[in-house]
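Two records follow; treat each independently.
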Amino acid sequence: MNIARQAAPRLAFFLAVFVVIFAAMTGPTVAAGVGTVTAYAGTWHTHIVYYATAESKARTEDAHLRNDCWQSAGYFACDQFVDGTSKALVVFTYDSASNVYHTYAIPSDGTPASSGQLLISGSRWTFPWQVSDNGKTTYGRVINIFHGADTIEYRQEFSDDGAHWTVTAAGTEHRVSH
């Protein structure tokens, strides 16, 4: 089994975490810097449809997410609860020179943390990553399209060449309380 397939369930979980973190953002009108993610705090309902692909199995998931967040200097952190259980502490930093957010998800089960980037272009927010196995690279990304402060559409995709993408999941997030 290749690493991409072994890592897919874990990557999907952390990508879902990242997607929800930015659900409250509205694209270019949001303040710059790590403070951008302050709009994330609150409770959200998420609905995800996973498609049958080489990297995913068909299924649907609904969850309630509660984000307990705080900022300290150049860090913004959220303890993310999924259906009432703390799943990950997600820490954000911002590199103003490159306009890139860096994300660090620390699972509550003690497994190793993961890190990633967030690239913003208007209301499109992209979390890219790649996994290599025996010289073969699989690319992945989550794309968020924001519709105001309380709704986001998103999709998760993979590619063997970084140019032609297959959607593995798509969904919506709706804020239910602040």
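The next record belongs to a different protein.
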Amino acid sequence: MNRLTLHVGLHKTGTSAIQRAAAHQRDGLRQIGLHYPPSDPHVAHHSIASLFVKAFKHGDAGAMEKLTRQCETWIQNCDGEHFLVSSEIFMEERAYLRELGFFRRFFSQVDAIIYLRRQDLMLESAYNQMVKQSGCTAEIMESRAYFTNYTTATDPLEAGVGDGNVQVRLYEPGALRDDDVFRDLLTTIGYTEQASTFNTPKSVNRSLGLASLEVMKALGNFKIKNRSTFVSKVLDMSPGIFGERERSMVGHYLRPNERTAILDSCASSNEKIRARYFPEREWLFSPPVPSPDDGPITVTLDEVNRVLIEAWNACQPA
């Protein structure tokens, strides 16, 4: 029997850690009967997800042909195995998750796993990445709409792979096996005994702290050669310059009233998901612990200049 498990995200729920762990331990997974197909040049299967979106959203016949050929190749090379395919791109066009039944042409069983994160933390983490990678200059609350209603993901996902074939997991402390998202995934899809033998990268993407976030916002979308290296140097310099102000941004950037507003707007859809997938829990997510100190911090122009100059100098060849 061929089985396909689709890991579809969400963004900012340990997806990169899962994908990197699976790709780096592909041979070990194969020994327990789980096949993580090669996905050059990425560790994730973004090319497969992109073909799926092109085929069903745009009616691209060429994409459909390539997608069909790829699935047939997998089956020919690894018949009778359990396949794991991972990409957040499936979620970029959520309505078309209803078309995931396409994969039943090739696999006798198709199921899906999705990780959800409390929406205020999801927003902070995504905003952190936008500032770090692209110099986002918008304010955080301008990005909130995307992160409200998770039923817009779970409902079409259920329609696509079938009622009872969706595993919903929570990405928060205490909810993951061994506090390890890759081991949690393996356990959830049926590899309970073997999960503890696999490792997960402890840090895949470094995040900006409260102070370094303000530095990068001040820089804006100014074009920097080798931006990732420059940001890394900013992160290296910031603790020595800002001290305790350079604490974790996620969980502390939103003001208490903003955090409350976001969670209130999500309350109805979160309750639907709790009742459907987690009836034993009182709440879908652990409630936040508000602090009057939460919110953006102020950094001086002199501090910003000092960090930027030191980071710039550190990037120059010796």
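Discussion point: Residues 210-252+295-315 form one domain. How would you locate this feature using only the token line?
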